[in-house]
Amino acid sequence: MFQESKCDFCGECLERCHYFDFNRESGGREFKKLVEGGKVSWLYDCVTCIACNEYCTRGARPFDLILQRMEEAGDFADPVLLDQMAERFKPEGEPKATEKGDRAMSVCVMTGNMPWAIQGQLFENIPLLKGKHYFCNVLFAHMGNESIMRERLKTMVDNLAKSGAKEIVFVHDDCYGFLKDVAPEYGVEMPFRLVHLFEYLRDYLKQHKDRITKLNMNVAYQRPCASRYSPEKDPFLDEIFELIGVTRVAREYDETNALCCGVEVAGPNLKLFPRGKNFAPFRDKNVKDAKDHGAEAMVYLCPMCFATLNNKVREAGMKNYMISDICRLALGENMPEEKPS
């Protein structure tokens, strides 16, 4: 939730945004107008990347207010489409029973759109929680709606808790970030320890160093929007890269300065976000930045980032890997045929 008492209207959050053309003075003035309930046209140019929450050094959470104003306006996304998507991701009945253990892994709905990324030794010997019962609904933030996320949060947590696990590893960055950062804002406590996929992979690689063959590869990393909710876990990624012999190229659009992938669709012909062809130059800059700084491949954490950028990355002469893919390569596994190059 937006913390007005912490906001000094410095304008930094809007000045640093890649998608607006504000300086500090105009950014502070425009954000104050938003706080006071005024109409601002730039609200419809927001790509909902959550970056402004990370930019704010005072912890005021400006994106939370932007999201609130979007929902109040009610026209950021097509209301009919919003209803369709809400129905599509609504869990029904009880989650399937899983093998009980101290630790489980939530793969959310990722097995549906990229099954190859949830295969191999990394995913053996741990119960997998998969399907809509474990879906965090952060996609609705990208549709300008907070209520669906908030209303379904407790049910999601309860479904995860039914696994009986004391620790749950989250493959989907949205799920981890939402539970780590947003759930406390709603007063929802976690009955289990949250473990990010990065932490899990780092630990697995450390425990199986004898299986690792260094890849000696230069890569760019596509940091997803949801990582803005939990930047504290990012150092795990650098440990992973060091363990598998991968160099993360130093480039402009990385870490806090990362560009959103610019995803527009989720599923066949389902247009979700008000970006369209206006976002194409940002995608091009992102891929060019990676190529120009010597990357041989783009590494992803988010499945939608992969789906959005993989063709452009391949056309630029680079390869595409989910983070689990590149770890499996270092462990001596071959990628299955259904994985896009």
Count of all domains? 3
Helix-strand pattern, N to C? HHHHHEHEHEHEHEHEHEHEH
Low-confidence stretches: none
* Mean pLDDT across all amino acids: 91
Extended strand count: 8
Global structural class = alpha/beta
- How big a fraction of the residues is strand? 5-15%
Instruction: Sum up the overall morphology in one term.
Output: globular
Cα-atom Rg, whole angstroms?
Answer: 20 Å
User: Largest beta sheet, briefly?
Assistant: 4 strands, parallel
Assigned CATH class of the largest domain: Alpha Beta
SS summary, helix count: 13
Proportion of helical residues: 25-40%
Account of the protein in words:
The protein is built from 13 helices and eight strands. The protein folds into three domains: 4-73, no CATH class; 103-196, Rossmann fold (3-Layer(aba) Sandwich), CATH 3.40.50; 201-330, Rossmann fold (3-Layer(aba) Sandwich), CATH 3.40.50. It is an alpha/beta fold and 341 residues long. The longest helix has 15 residues, at 147-161. The protein starts with 11 loop residues before the first helix and ends in an 11-residue tail after the last helix. It has a four-stranded parallel β-sheet. Strands 6-5-7-8 form a four-stranded parallel β-sheet, with helices on both faces. The model has no long low-confidence stretch (mean pLDDT 91). Helix 9 (197-207) packs parallel to helix 10 (235-244).
